[in-house]
Every structure is written in C-alpha cells, then in structure tokens.
Amino acid sequence: MKLLKKILIGLLIIFIAVQFYRPEKNISKENDTVAFMQETNPPEEVRVILKNACFDCHSNNTIYPWYNNIAPVSFWLADHIEEGKSELNFSDWQNYSEKKKDHKLEELYEEVERKSMPLNEYTWIHEEAKLSEKEIEAVVKWAKDTRSLYQLGNLPK
Ligand code: HEC
C-alpha cells in the first residue's frame, strides 16, 4: 500500500511537470488557404466541409479544442497535425506542382470515399465533421472534376 501511494504521487508529479511543456501551436496569421480555394473553386457545400473537417490537420491554422491545454493530449494532437500536414497541406497548395496537385486530389477523394478521412478520433469529438453520403459524394465529384482540369492544364490562373 505504501509503495502504491508513492507510485501514485510520483505519477502525479510527472503529470504536473509535463504541463509546463507545450508543443508549438499550428497557427499562422495569414488566411493562407485562399490560393487553394481560388484555384480549385469548390462549391459552397464542399468549402464548408473542407473547413470543418480537414483544415485543422491539413492547413497552417488549427482551431484548437480546450483540452489541447492538457499534456500529453497536446503532444498527441501536435503529432497528428504535423503528420497530416506533411501528407497534404492546403496552405501550401500554391507551391505544389500540377502533377502533385492532381495526385493529392486523387488521394483526397479516395480517402473520403473509403471514410478514412477525417480520422475517426477527430469525428468522435467534432460531430460536424462526420460526413453524410451526400457530402462525401459532393467532395468526390468536386475533386474528380478539378483533377480533370489539372490534367488538361486548364485551370484559371
Ligand atoms: C485529426 C487530424 C486529421 C483530420 C481532421 C483529417 N486528416 Fe487527413 N491525415 C491526417 C494524418 C495524420 C494523415 C497521415 C496518416 C494517414 O494517412 O493516416 C492524413 C493523411 C491524409 C491524406 C493522404 C493519404 C495518403 O494516401 O497517404 C489525405 C489525402 C487526407 N489526409 C485528406 C483529408 C481530408 C480530405 C480530410 C477532411 C475530409 C482530412 N484528411 C481530415 C490527419 C487528419
């Protein structure tokens, strides 16, 4: 019993100590998804979906939940965001080649179609990010149409 108490106190001290460490937040001052939105011109419905369900992990601006103030949750979220952005960053769209844009749009609709994105851990908390069949269809259609524009080299500049 004495040992258990020591262990618990030890854990509590570690928990408190780790609260002093904060991963850097993914927040930039610019509204830097504008270039992506202009170029791929999603219909309003798709814009809202991308904003509500994808940008937190795939852009330079995350809207953080309150529990991001608690370590180790903060580290877990930071990790997801870093990994998500390294795969696809809508804030960096203007620096992708046409070929990469085309490929990312292909991955995008595949992920959404098979319901791998948004991540389940995310939709547990963010109800609004759960996509209906109709919403999935709208995203897939937009991504496919936009791909064909890249393939034809036909996007408005
Ligand atoms: C909670 C964070 C989070 C959210 C929200 C999220 N993603 Fe992701 N996304 C990730 C992570 C992490 C990866 C890399 C690991 C993986 O593929 O599971 C990823 C990978 C991807 C990839 C690359 C997959 C591949 O083929 O390698 C695409 C495309 C993608 N996400 C699209 C989306 C779209 C579209 C949405 C919104 C409908 C979305 N994501 C929402 C975290 C997220």
Question: What does the model show?
Answer:
By secondary structure, the chain is mainly alpha-helical. It has one domain (2-151). Helix content is 60%, strand content 0%. The radius of gyration is 19 Å and the shape is elongated. 21% of the residues are buried. It binds heme C.
**Gyration radius from CA atoms, angstroms:** 19 Å
- Quaternary state of this entry equals single chain
Structural class by SSE content: mainly alpha
Parts with pLDDT < 50 across at least 5 consecutive residues = none
* Cα end-to-end separation: 71 Å
What is the succession of H and E elements? HHHHHHHH
Number of structurally distinct domains:
1
Bound molecules: heme C
Biggest sheet overview? none
Helix percent reads: 55-70%
Number of helices: 8
Shape estimate: elongated
Strand content: under 5%
Q: Overall pLDDT, averaged?
A: 94
Give the strand tally.
0
Question: Can you summarize this structure?
Answer:
The chain is mainly α and about 160 residues long. The chain contains eight helices and no strands.
Architecture blueprint of SSEs:
Elements: H1 2-18, H2 34-40, H3 44-53, H4 55-58, H5 73-87, H6 98-113, H7 120-125, H8 133-151
Heme C (HEC) is lined by residues 53-54, 56-58, 80, 83-84, 87-88, 107-108, 111-112, 117-119, 122.
